[in-house]
Specification:
two-stranded parallel ribbon; about 35% helix; mainly alpha; 2 strands
Length: about 90
Amino acid sequence: SGYGKTDPRLMSILRNSPHQVVTKFQDDGFTSPSKQVAIRTLRSWKADTLIIAGINGGYCVKSTALGAIENGFDALTSSDIVGNIN
C-alpha cells in the first residue's frame, strides 16, 4: 500500500513461486529494517546469486547490488531489467 503496484506479469510468475516481499526505506534493500528478514529468507532458500531489477539504476539498483555483495551474495543485473529515471 502506498508504494505502487508491481507489474501484473511479474505477479503472475511470483504467485506460483516462493517469494518474500521486503519493503525498503532506503536506496539499498539490505539496509532497511527488514534486512535480517531478507537475508534469512534468501539463505533458507540457499540463494547465492541474486538478480537485481528496478527502476532507479543509478541509485536503488546499484545500492542494492552492492548491499547484496557486502552480505555475501553474488549480484547480477542487466539493462534489460533496470530503468533509470535520471
